[in-house]
Amino acid sequence: MPLSQPMPDGFAAKIAALNNFEPATAGFSPFIIAGEPLGWLGSETADLLQAQGFIQPHDAGYALVPGFDTDAARRSEGLRLAAEAMQADGRMGGFRDEPYRVCAGWDQPDIAVLDRRAIPHFGIRSFGIHLNGVVETATGLEMWIARRALDREVEPGKRDNMVAGGQPADLSLMDNLIKEAAEEAAVPEALARQAKQGGIITYQQVEPVERLKHDTIFTYDLFLSEDFVPENTDGEVGQFERLPIAEVAAIVRDTDEFKPNCNLVIIEFLARHGLLEVVA
Known about the structure:
This protein is of the alpha+beta class.
């Protein structure tokens, strides 16, 4: 997320909070799959998986054992079984039945697929889309902000972007945006297709139980009419509110009200539109 404008301290702190991964000090080792370093394993996770025969030492890290590292189907099977071993050990919750790609980058071929729940436990890169719902008014830009439902497993009650979702293995970015926009904000397909891609955000955040979120977010902007009101249809959002962009920026800069990765999405929006100093 290259920036040409000065970064106010409050924004810089939000970026730093999601980029706290230092392999040497965090106790992680590279995880080699199909000959490529595609993930990171914490020391206790590596010990468990090596003891159960899923991985073996490889240079300065670990690799999937050759019996599972033959083709995409076998890699997917080996990773699933390794994830089930982590579940049996109490290190991971139940699968979410959402297959994610295992690959070196968005434009690289799939090496395997793995359930969304397991991705950060292997330190494997994941992808997602976030949509800024923006309204141009006579007094300036305003942005639709979601409030996550209180029963959400992740960050209940936190503020969120109008639409956001992880990227399934079997959908294009636009198809996923259309699906998520319909479910989360009742945006018609024809309107969702008017969204313009903004930027690409990547971060690496260490979480408890040796989880590493190595996430890439594709951001989109959708400029909406003043009479459009989003309506949630899947139960993930408790409410929506439309706020002046200066107020949104102040909330990001000065509080912890937003789901952490949404802070980065809004900061990236502000940077692209020359608005980093809108609350300074």
